[in-house]
Design brief:
The chain is built from three helices and seven strands. The chain is globular. It has 154 residues and is α+β, with helices and mostly antiparallel strands. The protein starts with a helix and ends with a strand.
């Protein structure tokens, strides 16, 4: 079992099957030693789990839960792309989109749900650069969508 897999196990997280794309794109692209993962949604058991708008119907804690689910799905895609999470050298960057009202300003706190989880699961390999931005709406009404760039073994 890999170090990341062992940490996931300790956290009680079993990675799901990597989700298929919802439109005309691929779930990930490998080029050289970089892995770009398309935006992942807050899904579990094949179903969207958190919909709504931060600053309206959802709390920051709801948003953090959504972000954590997105991060789990990012790792599922990374595993599908590499076959083994130990081939991940490090997480380089995430970009988190938060479905929020115009006056909501706590997007960084929401995306901490993903950042905190990724560091727990990956250790120092999970420390990353990031952006946390507001979106007027997101696909299927989800609360959060997150994309990622990983460095992988060439």
């Amino acid at each position: 079992m890999s170090t990341i897999e062992a940490r996931l196990n300790d956290l009680g997280v079993a990675l799901p099957e990597a989700a298929a794309p919802a439109a005309n794109y691929v779930p990930f692209v490998k080029t050289g030693n970089q892995l770009f993962i398309s935006g992942q949604l807050p899904m579990a058991d094949g179903k969207i789990q958190v919909t709504g708008k931060l600053g309206d119907t959802l709390s920051i804690e709801d948003g953090k839960t959504a972000a954590r689910l997105c991060a789990i799905n990012l790792l599922a895609q990374a595993k599908a792309a590499t076959g083994d999470l130990e081939k991940v050298v490090r997480l380089v960057k995430i970009v988190g989109f938060v479905n929020s009202t115009a006056d909501f300003g706590d997007q960084p706190q929401v995306i901490n749900g993903a950042s905190d989880f990724l560091v727990e699961a990956m250790g120092d390999k999970g420390r990353h650069a990031r952006s946390a931005v507001s979106a007027a709406s997101l696909p299927f009404g989800v609360a959060v969508e997150i994309e990622a760039i990983f460095e992988i073994e060439a």
